[in-house]
Amino acid sequence: MENEHKAIYDAKQLGGGKVAVLGLQHMFAMFGATVLVPIITGLNVSTTLLFAGLATLFMHLVTGRKVPVFLGSSFAFLGGYAAVKAAGSAMGYDDATSLVYACVGIACAGLLYLILALICKAYGSKKVMRFFPPVVTGPIIVAIGMNLAPSAINNCATNWPIALVAILVVIICNIWGKGMIKIIPILMGVLASYIVAAVTGNVDFSAVAEAKWVGLPVIWDRTVFGLFAGGEVNSGLLVSAIITIMPIALATMMEHIGDISAIGGTVGKNFIEDPGLHRTLIGDGVGTAIAALFGAPANTTYGENTGVLALTKVYDPFVIRIAALYAIILSFCPKFAAIIEVMPSATIGGVSIILYGMISAIGIRNMVENHTDFQKSRNVIIAALIIGLSIGINFSGSLGADITTAGNNATGAISFAIGNVNIALSGLAVASIIGIIINAILPGKNETFYENPKDAGSLGKYGNSLSDNEVAKTE
Question: Considering only CA atoms, which of 262, 265, 316 is closest in space to residue 68?
Fold first, then answer.
């Protein structure tokens, strides 16, 4: 029994068959959430799978094949996609075109990872992270989930019984599931709801029948290269997309650090020090930027696969690379992508209710685990401004929001012109910028960043236990 739970760092001792199965298990762990992002946003499923796999392989290359991490689709940017689609719609663009502009913003957000990596390498993580404490990133994450929640309800409203199947199965698998079932509750919820919808005649499979078995996963017209090669580019929408989406990276970079710390805590190694935080940031940032240029969603380190590591005790990164290869192979099957794309809106809505709520809950957990002190007025003010501005601007009728239109829940924005360029800043963008600035200028910061995850737990990077003087001494 003791040997069954012994950690394995070299998959060669397991044999090829077991390694192949373990890789398949990691692919299933990431699959449900990874394909759900393109389903929700309208991005291409095949492109998403291709660049999730390629980004994962690039991450392993940059980190010297030391970190057992998978890069899947990030939910944090969903609010950004929705805001850019709304802005594009107001300018007369369809969703597909607006999404390409959003991808430009995602690519620029990926570049922020490289900047942070350079600063961390030059000055150390501790000093840099003090500008992005949980009192800033936590409320940003909370606001992301709250902004998205109405779209989940709109999708559920298309067929509540189908949506309820997804919700109930996710809850049952997550609470009472055993082994792998507990690791993939979202995927199980999607499958159960999809099957019920198909059996009851609520799915149109004509697109699946027409789809080819083999095809290229990249659509040129839905890439950033296709946008710029196609002629006139709307500079106003371009700038708006960049300014709207880039600040979200401040939250996802903190998520990245937490996930890398969690993986280190799971396998018993400090990846913040070796191969170094700057290397993991480069892997994530470049993977996200390249994916976005080709029309795929932003990538992020996946906690689902960390759960599989803890379940199997097989920590060899080679197994993750096998999962990445599976994702790449699947991306060349349009028929498989078509099966995903005809999924009922109610199924998407059911799992989205939980996912969007979980996004907000993660933001709250981030603040709780890092002991953010809300007895301090400065912290209350920062959180209040971030949440108030984000939600208020997003749903403000005077700022252009149209909450009467189904699915159109992220249209409010602060608009202004610079020369001939019209720029629209979403509530999330405004809230993020204001939160960072207010945190920097208000007195009373006493949070310190722990480079060693053992000092702060798997997800906790900050602590408030030190006084201002003690923090100053640690710097």
Answer: 316
